[in-house]
Amino acid sequence: MPWRQTPNVRSVYSAAGRRRVDAKISNFQQVASLRRYTLTEGGANGLRVLDCDNGKIRFLLNESKALDIMQLYCEGKNISFVSKNGFKAEHGDFLQRFEGGMVYTCGLDSVGAREGFPLHGTLHGRAAKITRAECSNRGIFVEGEISDTALFGKNLLLKRRIYSDIGSDTVTLKDTLVNLGFREEDYCLLYHVNVGYPMLDEGAEIRAEIEEAIPRTAWAKERAAQRSIITAPVPEEEETCYFLRLKEPCVSLENKKIQKRFSLAYSGDMLPEFVQWKSMASGDYALGLEPCTTKLDDGFHYSKIAPNEEISFRLRLSVTPLD
């Protein structure tokens, strides 16, 4: 099951071996670390970053952009997609600023393309207030709050918690949406999880228990037989998008070239819809795995959150060896 507790990778700083290991290191940063810094060059100037390394998995968090996961590495190899735009501090048109990143959170006002709203909403552009940043033998814990408010309007707070055990192959993201206002509010969420080279490469395959795959466009329908297969990059190849109905809220990408499996598990009860976006275009080579609260296009609908209500969502990102 996607949320069954699995044994942790044995840490070099495990409780059982703590006394022995303590004699071999003088600083815990030899084992794991959490560093906070501000980027200073080009369009990224001013972005605040939390750089987290548990000894096996390294993940960068964008404090300036909703505490989203910028990049993910496993044993030094990149897992995430970063677009040619790179990471930028400024805001602008979506296609000129979309960086990809390991997790790009869309909402709370809109997801997808809808008239009168920016593409994929405004949540990602909101800075987080960090309330906890800890790295110790208990693990790495980062917590923050992202506000979405309006005068005479909504008063929503997204409380985000990202954590990983020392030496683990997994990073878990838990969001709790809170309505601090005095009226019922609309919301929507889509987690744009983006995989890139070398995790994404020719011959890799998408694995999931799929009950139905509905192509979004005529081109996607024509390419349906290759929906789960990663091909070589093709110049100016049109993207494909599919709306998937999954038996279990878990999907993975398997790459035999590097003998790795990237897995995404999520809270399917609160994220009942799933979108697969695949771009095999040269220079825009990416796979998007996107659990969400709503269908897109004509099927879009808002969810409701009552005053003082709290609603939680979870993602679990793992990188494991192929069996």
Automatic annotation (TrEMBL):
InterPro entries with a match to the protein in the record: DUF4432, GH-type_carb-bd
Domain of life from the UniProt record: Bacteria
- Name it: DUF4432 family protein
**Record-level Gene Ontology MF annotations:** carbohydrate binding
Per the UniProt entry, the signal peptide is: none
Organismal lineage? Bacteria, Bacillati, Bacillota, Clostridia, Christensenellales
Q: Which organism is it from?
A: Candidatus Borkfalkia ceftriaxoniphila
